[in-house]
Backbone:
């Protein structure tokens, strides 16, 4: 039987020992808040003074940290924030006290209607039952329920079909307390080389807006474009743009990007934990998917797919060690990954290794890692797990949290 009193006593004793500190993280993501502000200002200038910029900070701000990133974006002039779910809204509104306009991009649950009305959160309207509950909550609280109507123009996920948008607007108008403040849709293929489907969605959105306006309903803020569409389709900018990738300095695959001066906000780093020489013909990692072709200096990094490094990047991705690209060899493990450090002259245990970011004259971008992993760039940063400490630096305010495993 476990003696819980002994266990609890040991915990207290450990906390009280002088000089005992929590171990450093095995890897860390450094977030440059000055870069976030810079990119937000660049996008704002690109959009012009009449258009609103809504900073998309869902999924923990694409892995960058919701509260610090949202705060930096607002300081740089973002007009509002967009999140995916009510928990994300609660983190910003209740925990952090953010008072800026806050749009939840999903329908929400009727039982949370009063909570949303009380906290002045803007809801995506797609469901009649939710509208009814919002109206009842608004009546009880003597407040307005703020909504944006979402039209499904071709994503096939959330929203009212274009041909039903006008009827839905009439339905909302019949419910007191519902305040329609915007109408929007979501593009499915804005990054595609073929613009045909994006233009079709734009046409459907235009028709839906025309029919909603004919009911007498105010359209409010019209928004369709994401980061890629904002660069490629100026006719789709309307009153506002929802931007994620651009504010994080991540480059969508677009030749129009030259119009912007972006700065990547995130770098992902670790330290070399082990080095050993292995002869030619030595298999590496699970499944023996890589065999050394020469005598090799193999380095071990203390992170793996449990930390968000994509396993599909095994045997093809590179990291930077002493400014030298080093190939990831063997299957990425849950907690470790191996690299060929043979050409990184002078490599030693403890050396800093760059997974994302710049070292010397070389750089590894999120786009490049996504290409190696056969995935989208959004997945690369959002997948970085909780074992990876976020360290915030801010050159504009000379702020450094000091939480990174430096030294």
Residues:
């Amino acid at each position: 039987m476990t003696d819980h009193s002994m266990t609890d006593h040991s915990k207290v004793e450990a906390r009280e020992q002088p000089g005992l500190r929590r171990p450093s993280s095995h890897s860390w993501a450094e977030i440059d808040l000055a870069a976030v502000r810079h990119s937000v200002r660049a996008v704002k200038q690109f959009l012009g003074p009449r258009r609103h910029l809504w900073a998309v900070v869902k999924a923990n701000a694409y892995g960058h940290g919701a509260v610090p990133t949202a705060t930096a974006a607002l300081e740089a002039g973002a007009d509002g924030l967009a999140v995916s779910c009510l928990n994300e809204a609660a983190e910003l509104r209740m925990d952090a006290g953010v008072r800026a306009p806050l749009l939840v991009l999903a329908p929400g649950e009727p039982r949370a209607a009063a909570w949303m009305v009380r906290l002045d959160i803007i809801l995506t309207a797609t469901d009649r039952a939710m509208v009814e509950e919002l109206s009842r909550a608004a009546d009880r609280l003597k407040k307005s329920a703020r909504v944006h109507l979402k039209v499904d123009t071709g994503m096939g996920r959330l929203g009212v079909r274009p041909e039903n948008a006008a009827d839905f607007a009439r339905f909302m108008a019949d419910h007191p307390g519902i305040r329609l403040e915007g109408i929007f849709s979501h593009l499915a293929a804005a990054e595609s080389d073929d613009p045909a489907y994006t233009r079709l969605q734009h046409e459907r959105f235009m028709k839906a807006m025309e029919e909603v306006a004919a009911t007498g309903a105010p359209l409010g803020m019209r928004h369709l474009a994401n980061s890629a569409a904002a660069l490629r389709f100026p006719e789709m900018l309307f009153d506002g743009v929802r931007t994620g990738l651009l504010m994080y300095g991540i480059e969508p695959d677009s030749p129009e990007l030259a119009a912007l001066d972006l700065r990547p906000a995130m770098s992902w780093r670790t330290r070399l934990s082990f080095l050993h020489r292995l002869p030619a013909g030595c298999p590496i990692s699970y499944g023996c998917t890589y065999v050394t072709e020469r005598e090799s200096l193999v380095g071990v990094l203390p992170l793996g797919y449990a930390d968000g490094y994509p396993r599909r990047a095994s045997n093809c991705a590179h990291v930077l060690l002493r400014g030298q690209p080093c190939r990831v060899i063997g299957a990425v493990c849950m907690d470790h990954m191996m690299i060929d450090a043979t050409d990184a002259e002078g490599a030693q245990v403890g050396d800093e290794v760059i997974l994302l970011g710049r070292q010397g004259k070389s750089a590894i971008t999120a786009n490049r890692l996504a290409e190696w992993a056969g995935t989208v760039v959004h997945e690369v940063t959002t997948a970085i797990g909780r074992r990876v400490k976020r360290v915030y630096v801010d050159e504009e305010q000379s702020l450094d949290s000091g939480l990174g495993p430096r030294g």
